[in-house]
Specification:
By secondary structure, this protein is α/β, with parallel strands linked by helices. The protein has 26 helices and 17 strands. β13, α21 and β14 (529-533) form a beta-alpha-beta unit. 49% of the residues are buried. Bound molecules: thiamine diphosphate (TPP).
Length: 640
C-alpha cells in the first residue's frame, strides 16, 4: 500500500509521478471505507482526490496556502497532511473535524464550513503577504456551486482590481448539492462544451506538454493566443473581462496534467489566475457517481450497496416540505424558496408537485430573503427555508428588506439548535438571540411534528407581517395523526403540558421533550415539576408565564440555543421583578463554540441533557429549601 508510506506531504513528494494514480485510488478507497461508517461529505471529497495530490505535490504547503471553499471536500487533504490515522475519527466527538480547522493542522489555512469565503480569504492573505514583502503562493479552491454565492462575486471584483498574485482553482462538477442552477453555471457549461474552443485548447495543451521545459516566452505567446481565441469564440468572457487570467477547462482527474499546469501557473508571479478544472462528483464510487446529491452529505451506509444503514424515518424538514406542497396545491399564492438546499430542507417534494412556484436561488441566502420580500409585496406567500446557520448570512435582509416594511415573508429556520457532527460552523445556535430582537416578527418554535405542521398551516394564512418558525435537525417522533393537526395553537400563548408545585420547566421547542424526561427524574426525588411549552418566542406570553410561575416555588428555562440573548434571558427581563428571584437558572448553550459529535454527546457535554438538568435542579431546590428552613429557624429564634 502506497498510502501507508505517506505520513505527510514530504512523503508524497518523494513518490514517482507514475505512482500517483494508484495513490489516488487508495485514498478513494480509504475515504469510502471511513465515511461509510462515520457519515460525511463523500461525493465532493471523492471528486478532488487528484486535484489535492497535484496541489500538494506542486505547492510547498503549508508555507504556500491552499484555501478550500466550504471545506467539505478536504478529506484527501487531511489524509495527506498528517491525519491519515486520525481520519477514522472523522466528525466523531473528540475526533477530527469534517472541515478544515487551524487548531488541527498548520496545513488548514483557515477554518471554513460556510460557502463562498475562499476568494475573500485568499485575497486578504495575498494582500497581507505583499504588504509584508513575503514570498509564497496562495491558492483558493472553489466549486461551481460556491461560485454562485454573492461573496465570491464581491471578492472577484476586488481580485480583478487589485491584481495581486493568486491562483483560483474553479472545481466545476456541475453540481452544488443538487444540480447547479442559474445563469453562471449555464455560462460555465457553455465554456466546457464550446467545441471549437475545446479543440483549440486541447491542441495548445498538447503542444505545451510535448515540450519538456517550455520557455516563458513561448508559453506567454500561447497564452495570449488562447486568450485571444477565447475572446472571439466565447462571448463575454467573464473572468478575463474582470482582469483574471483564465486557463482551462482541463480534466481534473489527470494528475500529471494538473501538476504540469500548476507548475506553470506557479511560475507566473503576477496577477490573479483562474484554472477551470472539470471533475466528477463522487468519482470512483459508483453509487455516489450515480447519485451525487444523496452522497453529498450522507449518514453511515453500506459500502457494498450504498444503502443508508439507518432505516427511513420522517424528518422535520420532510414534514415541512410535504405540508407546504399539500397547501400549495390548493393555495396558488404559496411559493417555496431554497438557497441550494432542496434536499436538506425537504423541498424536493414541493418542486415535484408545484414546479412553477419552486425556486432554487443558488447559495444565496441574502438574495433568497430579499427575493421573497419582492414576491410578498406582489401578494404571494413566500416560504423561504434555510438552515439556521446559513440564515446568519441574511440578517440584514430580514431586518431591512422584510421587517421594516412588515412584509409577510415566512422563514422556515431548519436545523435550529445543535446539529451534531458538522460541528461549530453548522450549529444553529444564534437564531434566537438574533431574530427575537427584530420588531414586527412573529417567532415560533414547535415541540413536535404536529405543532410544526400546525404552525406551517397557520403561516400560510398569516399575512400581517414576517413570521419565523425554528425547528431542529432530526426525526419526527409523533408521526401518527400528522395529516390533520389537532394542535390548538395561538402565537403568543404558552401551553401548559403538566402541572407541578415546586418548579416550572419553561421549555422551548425540542427542549419540551427534555423537560418531560426531567419531570420523571425529579418526581422520583420528590420534586413536583410543571412543564410549560413556550411555543412562541415572539410575541412572548408574559402573562401566561407569570401566571404559571406564580403557582410554583421556582422556575427554570430550557432552550436549544445560546444562553446569552436566549429566550430564558428574555423571559427573566420581561416578567414582573418580584417573580425574577424564582429563576433557578436559564439552560442554554454556554458562551463558547460547540464542537462536533452526536447531538446527545453535545447536550451532555454542555449540561443540557435530562439527567444533568434534573440533577442541577434538584441540587438547587434542595439548597433553597434548606436555606429557607434556616432563615425560618433564625426568624423564630429572634422572635423568641
Ligand atoms: C452559506 C452556505 N450555504 C449553504 C451551504 C451548504 N452547502 C455545503 S456544500 C454546498 C454545495 C457546494 O457546491 P460546490 O461549491 O460546487 O462544491 P461540490 O460539493 O459540488 O464539490 C452547499 C450548498 C454552505 N456550506 N454554506
Amino acid at each position: 500500500m502506497l498510502l501507508e508510506s505517506i505520513r505527510t506531504v514530504a512523503d508524497l513528494r518523494k513518490l514517482d509521478a507514475r505512482e500517483l494514480p494508484l495513490l489516488a485510488q487508495e485514498i478513494r478507497d480509504y475515504i469510502v471505507d471511513v465515511v461509510s461508517s462515520t457519515g460525511g461529505h463523500l461525493a465532493s471529497s471523492l471528486g478532488v482526490v487528484e486535484l489535492t495530490i497535484a496541489l500538494h505535490c506542486v505547492f510547498k504547503t503549508p508555507q504556500d496556502k491552499i484555501i478550500w471553499d466550504v471545506g467539505h471536500q478536504s478529506y484527501a487533504h487531511k489524509i495527506l497532511t498528517g491525519r491519515r490515522e486520525e481520519f477514522v475519527t472523522l466528525r466523531k466527538f473528540g475526533g477530527i473535524s469534517g472541515f478544515p480547522k487551524r487548531a488541527e493542522s498548520p496545513f488548514d489555512a483557515y477554518n471554513t464550513g460556510h460557502s463562498s469565503t475562499s476568494l475573500s480569504l485568499a485575497l486578504g492573505e495575498a494582500v497581507g503577504r505583499d504588504l509584508k514583502h513575503e514570498k509564497y503562493k496562495v491558492v483558493a479552491v472553489i466549486g461551481d456551486g460556491s461560485l454562485t454565492g454573492g461573496m465570491a462575486f464581491e471578492a472577484l471584483n476586488q481580485i480583478g482590481h487589485l491584481k495581486n498574485d493568486l491562483i483560483i482553482v474553479l472545481n466545476d462538477n456541475e453540481h452544488s448539492i443538487s444540480k447547479n442552477v442559474g445563469a453562471l453555471p449555464a455560462y460555465l457549461m457553455r465554456m466546457i462544451t464550446g467545441s471549437i474552443y475545446n479543440r483549440f485548447r486541447k491542441r495548445s495543451y498538447e503542444i505545451i506538454r510535448k515540450i519538456p521545459r517550455i520557455g516563458n516566452r513561448i508559453y506567454d505567446f500561447l497564452y495570449k493566443m488562447e486568450a485571444g481565441f477565447k475572446g472571439i469564440l466565447l462571448p463575454g468572457h467573464l473572468f478575463e473581462d474582470m482582469g483574471i487570467r483564465y486557463f482551462g477547462p482541463v480534466d481534473g482527474h489527470d494528475i500529471n496534467l494538473l501538476m504540469d499546469i500548476f507548475s506553470r501557473l506557479k511560475s507566473i508571479n503576477d496577477g490573479p489566475k483562474l484554472l477551470h478544472v472539470i471533475t466528477k462528483k463522487g468519482k470512483g464510487y459508483r453509487p455516489a457517481e450515480i447519485n451525487p446529491a444523496v452522497f453529498h452529505g450522507i449518514g453511515p451506509f453500506s459500502r457494498e450497496t450504498g444503502q443508508l444503514l439507518e432505516g427511513y424515518r420522517l424528518s422535520y424538514s420532510e414534514l415541512v416540505g410535504k405540508t407546504l406542497a399539500r397547501l400549495a396545491r390548493k393555495d396558488k399564492k404559496i411559493v417555496a424558496i431554497t438557497a441550494a438546499m432542496k434536499l436538506g430542507t425537504g423541498l424536493y417534494e414541493f418542486e415535484r408537485k408545484v414546479p412553477d412556484r419552486f425556486f432554487d436561488v443558488g447559495i444565496a441566502e441574502q438574495h433568497a430573503i430579499t427575493f421573497a420580500a419582492g414576491l410578498a409585496s406582489k401578494g404571494f406567500k413566500p416560504f423561504v427555508s434555510i438552515y439556521s446557520t446559513f440564515l446568519q448570512r441574511a440578517v440584514d435582509q430580514i431586518i431591512h428588506d422584510v421587517a421594516i416594511m412588515n412584509l409577510p415573508v415566512r422563514m422556515l429556520v431548519d436545523r435550529a439548535g445543535i446539529v451534531g457532527s458538522d460541528g461549530e460552523t453548522h450549529h444553529g445556535l444564534f437564531d434566537v438571540s438574533i431574530l427575537k430582537s427584530i420588531p414586527n416578527l412573529v417567532f415560533l418554535a414547535p415541540a413536535n411534528g404536529r405543532e410544526l405542521q400546525a404552525m406551517v398551516e397557520y403561516a400560510s394564512h398569516y399575512d400581517r407581517g414576517p413570521l419565523v418558525i425554528r425547528y431542529p435537525r432530526g426525526h419526527v417522533a409523533d408521526v401518527s395523526g400528522l395529516v390533520s393537526p389537532d394542535f390548538d395553537f395561538k402565537p403568543g400563548k404558552v401551553k401548559i403540558i403538566k402541572k407541578g408545585k415546586d418548579v416550572a420547566l419553561l421549555a422551548l421547542g425540542d427542549m419540551v421533550h427534555t423537560a418531560m424526561l426531567c419531570v420523571d427524574i425529579l418526581e422520583k426525588r420528590g420534586i413536583g415539576a410543571a412543564v410549560v411549552n413556550l411555543i412562541s418566542i415572539k410575541p412572548l406570553d408574559v402573562e401566561g408565564i407569570e401566571r404559571e410561575i406564580s403557582h410554583t416555588a421556582y422556575f427554570v428555562t430550557m432552550e436549544n440555543a445560546y444562553h446569552i440573548g436566549g429566550v430564558g434571558e428574555y423571559i427573566v427581563g420581561a416578567i414582573s421583578p418580584h417573580l425574577r428571584h424564582k429563576c433557578l437558572f436559564n439552560a442554554g448553550f454556554p458562551d463558547r463554540f460547540i464542537t462536533h459529535g452526536t447531538t446527545s454527546q453535545l447536550f451532555r457535554q454542555n449540561g443540557l441533557d435530562a439527567d444533568t438538568l434534573a440533577e442541577k435542579i434538584s441540587r438547587l431546590v434542595a439548597k433553597k429549601i434548606l436555606h429557607g428552613r434556616k432563615k425560618k429557624a433564625r426568624h423564630i429564634s429572634i422572635r423568641k
